């Protein structure tokens, strides 16, 4: 049976996030997708209570010690890094010039900048299956983006009994994005236009929500 839990990740290195709220259900779904290679199946298998599409899993709560930025340079290959459908075509529907990997003018380098967060730990609240969640998290040693570069290293995971359901906090504040018609907490909380259910990148999953003051 689902129970109220507190999940804590103790960090060894700064975390790199892609913005957003870094909800626990998104983290678990990502782990499951790596195993199943099926987005819908991964979301369906998340061992967290879900009501009408809303997971009872909070956004990441981070006691930030410092915020910085890091830049990485990556090679861009035009023939596979760019969607051909986005390239201007002639009247016959063909791309004006061929592109390839061997000619230097057809590829180059791109620099991406990431926000880094230094913190001792990250915490989530949820209502879910403790043993299943623990089994998914314990083998995970890195979270967030740029994991292969050493960011987001997790020293240990703790899955403990908690008091919050991952949706509403002790003072009625939203612990994650919740559509206004589904929220039963403090209605004076801030409202934003954001995604509230997976897949979080999908425009159809956005709505006006009560949400925490800032995403990770």
Number of helices: 4
CATH topology of the largest domain, what is it called?
Answer: Alpha-Beta Plaits
Give the terminus-to-terminus CA distance. Answer: 30 Å
**Proportion of residues in β-strands:** 25-35%
Tell me roughly what share of residues is in helical segments: 10-25%
The overall pLDDT average reads: 87
- Major sheet: size, sense and barrel closure? 5 strands, antiparallel
- By helix and strand content, what is the structural category? alpha+beta
Overview of the structural elements:
- The protein has helices at residues 24-36, 39-44, 78-81, 130-137; strands at 3-11, 15-16, 50-51, 54-55, 61-77, 107-128, 154-161, 178-179, 191-195, 206-210.
- The strands form three sheets. Strands 1, 2, 5, 6 and 7 form a five-stranded antiparallel beta sheet that branches.
- The chain folds into two domains: 3-69 and 115-171, Alpha-Beta Plaits; 70-112, no CATH class.
- Helices cover 14% and strands 34% of the residues.
- The mean pLDDT is 87.
